[in-house]
């Protein structure tokens, strides 16, 4: 039994869906569960729709019609027979959201977000399952909300592993005996039967949850890159593919922000010893990267690049040391404001952190300023180098001013900005 995960980039258009079909056909149709994300950047557009709805913006209707039209264009291109029940199924899915949009947005925004944004995965999986059926690959469409059981922490729901494992193990093996199971990434269901989501880019994590609960042979995530590279090709030229990666290094890389895999993906797989393959849907014959229980360090230095960083420096007003009591208070304020620390460094009288810039930062700075003197710089870059050496550091700081550098045995983190030319 294996699990495949196809993300938004792989199903962004009809060619993508046809390519997915070829990949699935080339693997035989026995005992495969496929987890699929919303098409292309559809989740971003659904976020726009939710914002417009919550604000009562008049754009709301136009965005909804655009999203519907996009999916019906895909249906028209994939299915010649307009009597195919998929047309009604997709229409009915949109009607559910239409009813919601007709009412005033009185429910909490995060709850509304999940009810609306999840529709991207509902519709994409219905379309792909119907297309696979049309070309003779028998599929069973499964609603992930009945299996991935979560709390009601909407937008970033926590999985109830016991219930989830129970539901998956009770029903899915018999479905997998009959055909390919197609289900959604990113979405879950609460005990009150509302839709929840697992956090942006969470489909990799969904695939790991299904994999762990079914104890599969392997999980393969199909991406637009040949595998895990030593840097994001969007930022770095001359990247190299890593053939084998330990779970440990994979967790470190994703924790520091390597966006090729969602950070929560590795743990459930590591716990069960299930290998994760990252392979290219563009060149599916390539072997990709195998992430497993090997005990080998990364063969080459790896770079993780983050922009839009804010470096916050915090000083006790009374010149007291940065000791446990202050640190505990400072961390509780980061926790309260849901701001994740990307790197940190403390001295006797100051504590500095780099965080992603977002709409949460103003509230955090206000909370910190009540007790501490606070200084901050925006618009910075953070580079993390795993298995660094001086050459690699020199390479990334050319024409940069370094504001903070933190080193451990294997990892170096540098917060920097472009040098201002004089
Ligand atoms: N170390 C890395 N190796 C490969 N790709 C990376 C790495 N770090 C970041 N990426 C980025 O991850 C992208 C693939 O992930 P993503 O766009 O989330 O896929 P999907 O949404 O289709 O699942 C690549 O296009 C690449 O830009
Ligand atoms: N569609 C969701 C979930 C997801 O993981 O998508 P992708 O696999 O395209 O990153 C998002 O964009 O956040």
From TrEMBL:
<dbReference type="InterPro" id="IPR042199">
    <property type="entry name" value="AsparK_Bifunc_asparK/hSer_DH"/>
</dbReference>
<dbReference type="InterPro" id="IPR001048">
    <property type="entry name" value="Asp/Glu/Uridylate_kinase"/>
</dbReference>
<dbReference type="GO" id="GO:0004072">
    <property type="term" value="F:aspartate kinase activity"/>
</dbReference>
<keyword id="KW-0808">Transferase</keyword>
<feature type="binding site">
    <location>
        <position position="43"/>
    </location>
    <ligand>
        <name>substrate</name>
    </ligand>
</feature>
<dbReference type="InterPro" id="IPR001341">
    <property type="entry name" value="Asp_kinase"/>
</dbReference>
<keyword id="KW-0067">ATP-binding</keyword>
<dbReference type="InterPro" id="IPR036393">
    <property type="entry name" value="AceGlu_kinase-like_sf"/>
</dbReference>
<protein>
    <recommendedName>
        <fullName>Aspartokinase</fullName>
        <ecNumber>2.7.2.4</ecNumber>
    </recommendedName>
</protein>
<dbReference type="InterPro" id="IPR045865">
    <property type="entry name" value="ACT-like_dom_sf"/>
</dbReference>
<keyword id="KW-0547">Nucleotide-binding</keyword>
<keyword id="KW-0028">Amino-acid biosynthesis</keyword>
<feature type="binding site">
    <location>
        <position position="121"/>
    </location>
    <ligand>
        <name>substrate</name>
    </ligand>
</feature>
<dbReference type="InterPro" id="IPR005260">
    <property type="entry name" value="Asp_kin_monofn"/>
</dbReference>
<dbReference type="GO" id="GO:0009090">
    <property type="term" value="P:homoserine biosynthetic process"/>
</dbReference>
<dbReference type="GO" id="GO:0005829">
    <property type="term" value="C:cytosol"/>
</dbReference>
<comment type="pathway">
    <text>Amino-acid biosynthesis; L-threonine biosynthesis; L-threonine from L-aspartate: step 1/5.</text>
</comment>
<feature type="binding site">
    <location>
        <begin position="5"/>
        <end position="8"/>
    </location>
    <ligand>
        <name>ATP</name>
    </ligand>
</feature>
<comment type="pathway">
    <text>Amino-acid biosynthesis; L-methionine biosynthesis via de novo pathway; L-homoserine from L-aspartate: step 1/3.</text>
</comment>
<dbReference type="GO" id="GO:0005524">
    <property type="term" value="F:ATP binding"/>
</dbReference>
<dbReference type="GO" id="GO:0009088">
    <property type="term" value="P:threonine biosynthetic process"/>
</dbReference>
<keyword id="KW-0418">Kinase</keyword>
<feature type="domain" description="Aspartate/glutamate/uridylate kinase">
    <location>
        <begin position="2"/>
        <end position="280"/>
    </location>
</feature>
<dbReference type="Pfam" id="PF00696">
    <property type="entry name" value="AA_kinase"/>
</dbReference>
<dbReference type="GO" id="GO:0009089">
    <property type="term" value="P:lysine biosynthetic process via diaminopimelate"/>
</dbReference>
<comment type="similarity">
    <text>Belongs to the aspartokinase family.</text>
</comment>
């Amino acid at each position: 039994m294996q699990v495949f995960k196809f993300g938004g980039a792989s199903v962004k258009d009809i060619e993508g869906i046809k390519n997915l079909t070829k990949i699935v056909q080339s693997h035989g149709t026995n005992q495969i569960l496929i987890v699929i994300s919303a098409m292309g950047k559809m989740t971003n557009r659904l976020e726009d729709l939710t914002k417009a709805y919550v604000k009562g913006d008049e754009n709301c209707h136009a965005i909804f019609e655009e999203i519907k039209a996009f999916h019906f264009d895909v249906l028209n291109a994939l299915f010649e027979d307009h009597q195919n029940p998929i047309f009604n199924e997709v229409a009915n899915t949109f009607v559910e959201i239409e009813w919601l949009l007709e009412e005033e947005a009185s429910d909490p925004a995060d709850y509304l977000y999940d009810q609306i944004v999840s529709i991207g995965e509902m519709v994409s999986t219905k379309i792909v399952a119907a297309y696979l059926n049309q070309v003779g690959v028998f599929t069973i469409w499964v609603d992930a909300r009945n299996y991935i059981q979560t709390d009601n922490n909407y937008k970033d729901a926590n999985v109830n592993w016991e219930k989830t494992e129970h539901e998956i193990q009770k029903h899915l093996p018999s479905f997998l005996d009959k055909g390919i199971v197609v289900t959604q990434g990113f979405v879950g269901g609460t005990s009150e039967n509302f839709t929840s989501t697992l956090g942006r880019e969470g489909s990799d994590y969904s695939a790991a949850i299904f994999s762990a609960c079914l104890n599969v042979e392997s999980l393969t995530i199909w991406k637009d890159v040949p595998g895990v590279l030593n840097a994001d090709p969007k930022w770095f030229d001359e990247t190299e593919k890593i053939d084998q990666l330990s779970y440990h290094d994979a967790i470190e890389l994703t924790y520091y922000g390597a966006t090729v895999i969602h950070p929560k993906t590795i743990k459930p797989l590591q716990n069960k010893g299930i290998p994760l393959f990252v392979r290219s849907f563009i060149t599916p014959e390539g072997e990709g990267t195998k992430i497993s229980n090997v005990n080998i360090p990364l063969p080459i230095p790896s770079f993780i690049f983050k922009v839009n960083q804010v470096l916050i420096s915090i000083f006790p007003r009374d010149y007291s040391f940065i000791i446990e009591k202050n640190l505990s208070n400072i961390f509780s304020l980061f926790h309260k404001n849901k701001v994740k620390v990307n790197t940190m460094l403390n001295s006797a009288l100051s504590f500095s952190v780099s965080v992603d810039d977002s709409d949460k930062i103003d509230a955090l700075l206000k909370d910190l300023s009540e007790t501490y003197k606070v200084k901050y710089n925006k618009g910075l870059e953070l580079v993390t180098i795993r298995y660094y050496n001086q050459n690699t550091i020199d390479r990334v700081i050319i024409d940069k001013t370094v504001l903070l550098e933190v080193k451990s045995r294997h990892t170096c983190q540098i917060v920097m900005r472009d040098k201002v030319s004089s």
